[in-house]
Design goal:
Blueprint (H helix, E strand, L loop, with lengths): L1 H20 L8 E5 L5 H10 L6 H10 L9 E5 L5 H10 L4 E5 L6 H12 L3 H8 L2 H6 L15 E5 L4 H20 L4 H6 L2 H14 L6 H13 L7 H8 L8 H4 L23 H8 L8 E4 L7 E4 L2 H14 L3
Antiparallel strand pairs: 1-2, 3-4, 5-6
């Protein structure tokens, strides 16, 4: 009887060992959620139910024989094929949850960011837009502004699978505030000159929209800062386009005469807030602009997307004539 018991025990251990070494029978990757409070027994059952492993009991035994290795983190995980129990435990204890990659390009306004995020993340457009323009939600994120225009940092993000609207926004704002701290440490005199982070983002959003070629960003920033210093209007059509959400069509005289405070063609000084979400390069260009005496710039309209820069109105008008010829007028 003793030999039978020992043999049975040895056989059970051998069977368990073989189960531990056995790779998952999965034919293709699967997404699984590990809820809060799940231990080895519940996770084992979850994996068995979804065809990831054959034996939930063997999974639990492995965790019992390897104390400290199974520390399961909540979230959604993408389970690959060909994994044994040890590898599965490591994955589910890593916290490296399944994600969806989305790229937010520089210079997009909030309503454009909504369109970029909603479909791949399966989010509600109206709820996204409402949160981005909620003063209460904005302030809860540590942002001193009426809304989040300018604070949704453009980058490539790996958003957690099943992230909700507020979660996605928080990730982008957190990155913006991280850049804020990084930029503030560089001690640019422009920071105090403009007044703070909100004003930096406001100017940078203008630079982002007006400088189609990255190498011109610090030159464009220098022109706008020169205009601010002498009380000259910034004169940017991009601000008028922002008011009317008119990104590519013609700008009408009635729009140029709008009494909206964002209309820099009509009013002097900086706009009340950003007109887009600027990237790091535009922010740096604003903080460290080209030292220039130029006050004007106009598109060359020669296919280069570059500008003519000038110090005087007469020179500016001459460049406008050249640009018209480049357009074939």
């Amino acid at each position: 009887m003793l030999f039978a018991v020992v043999g049975l025990g040895a056989g059970s251990v051998f069977y368990a060992y073989k189960q531990w070494e056995k790779v998952s029978p999965l034919k293709e990757p699967v997404l699984l959620e590990v809820p809060s409070g799940y231990g080895a027994e519940q996770v084992g059952r979850l994996l068995q139910k979804n065809g990831v492993i054959e034996s939930a009991k063997s999974f639990k035994w492995w965790c019992s024989f390897h104390p400290g290795r199974a520390n399961f983190k909540i979230g959604w995980y993408k389970i690959p094929t060909g994994q044994n129990i040890e590898q599965l435990v490591a994955l589910l204890s890593s916290g490296k949850t399944a994600s969806i990659r989305v790229t937010i390009p520089e210079g997009k306004a909030t309503w454009e960011v909504v369109e970029i995020l909603a479909k791949p993340l399966n989010l509600n457009n109206k709820k996204l837009d409402s949160l981005m323009h909620s003063t209460e939600f904005t302030k809860s994120l540590g942002v001193k502004a009426k809304d989040l225009e300018g604070y949704l940092f453009p980058s490539t993000y790996d958003f957690p699978y099943a992230v909700d609207e507020s979660g996605a926004i928080k990730i982008m704002v957190r990155e913006n505030l991280k850049i804020r701290d990084e930029m503030q440490a560089k001690n640019s005199p422009v920071w105090n000159q403009l007044g703070g982070w909100h004003e930096i983002l406001t100017m940078a959003s203008l630079v982002e929209k007006e400088a189609a070629v990255p190498k011109e960003q610090n030159h464009v920033a220098g022109v706008f800062l020169n205009r601010l210093k002498i009380g000259m209007s910034l004169g940017s059509c991009a601000t008028v386009r922002f008011i009317f959400r008119n990104l590519t069509g013609p700008i009408y005289k009635s729009q140029l005469e709008s009494s909206n405070p964002y209309n820099t063609r009509k009013y002097t000084g900086l706009m009340p807030g950003p007109i887009s979400n600027p990237g790091k390069a535009a922010i740096e260009a604003t903080l460290f602009p080209m030292q220039t005496t130029d006050l004007y710039f106009v598109s060359r309209d020669d296919g280069s997307r570059e500008h003519f820069f000038s110090k005087s109105l007469s020179q500016h008008n001459s460049f406008k004539e050249t640009a018209a010829k480049n357009r074939g007028e």
